[in-house]
Design a protein that fits this description.
Number of helices: 14
Oligomer: single chain
Strand content: 5-15%
CATH superfamily of the largest domain: TPP-binding domain
Order of helices and strands: HEHHHHHHEHEEHHEEEHEHEHEH
CATH class of the largest domain: Alpha Beta
Number of domains: 2
Shape: globular
Strand order of the largest sheet: 3-2-1-8-9-10
Distance between the termini: 11 Å
Structural class: alpha/beta
CATH topology of the largest domain: Rossmann fold
Helix content: 40-55%
Number of strands: 10
Length: 351
Amino acid sequence: MAGRLNGFAAHLLRRGGKGKVRTFIFGAGASVHAGYALASALWPALQQWERGQTFDQFDYCYGAVDSMNEEFDTSLPFELLLTELDKRIQSPRNLTEKACLPLRRGQIRLLVCRFFDFLRSHDAMLYEFFAREVLTPDDTVITFNYDLSLDRELQKSGKWSALDGYGFSLDRSLQKRSACKLLKLHGSTNWIAQIFDGLARGFAMGPPNESLGCRPVIPTPDLEYLGANFVDQQFRGTGGYQPSLIMPAAEKKFYFETSFGREWEEFWDSLWALAKKSVAASDNVHIVGYSLPDYDQRAGQLLRTADPSCDLSIYCRSDSQRIVNVFQQEGFTKAHFEGDGSFEHWLGHSA
């Protein structure tokens, strides 16, 4: 198998060619091999995991799953379930919902982080091979996943560093440390929004739009998990924070709504701008495991900034042909896929 994989990696590198700009785009279908659930199966998987945990009644997440099962149709795909939750938050039916539903959303967001952290022990063989044999300097990786399986393999490869590879610097240095970029456009389980600088400055009043800082902060244990030997200079402990990932609702909000107004909107816009610049400049764009749902409009607009003449490969399993057809109808004449459209096949491995 290693020989076939190495041969196909060389094939990919030849197709990229010297001086070619390449962007790799990953969705949930790419992380399945590392034990993570597709969005369509995330709630049942989250619920099964939660049933096996022991939550103290004073735990912030205590009772969240039972409450969601009682109040919502949890047979819906996770994105649509959260969309229904968001709609009820915007138009609560009574005072109880007005008080409880925002809390419920925060609980589910934290549960997703905890669940994904629980899955960290799984191997990510395909990501490891991708990072070691396929990725080359100046490539950009865009992912819509929250987990750290890809991040860890990139850090281990030596081609990427969390110091500045996420599109922002942890030490304010202007020196480039990452040969490649990893842009996590829906957030990451190791990014936290630190409330008033971790409440490290005593009584906090804070200027408008700065209660959560200007960028995500990465806790030291998460950097250690990646294999990094540095710390985020802004990390002040986990005394006052909230997970910063964007939940996969159909209508995504790329900001925090706080008493100071919208925060982090500029951060998310800057991250998406970096992604847009990379996609637009790419000679080769590879989409792996991302099904391009119609409701994910910002991602759809991003992908359509690619040059119609670029080599566009689609590897999204049973959705591959549908997505190829969509792009071909929009003038992307080189949109294509091969085999069964799997990540394994893309890397030269028989599924």
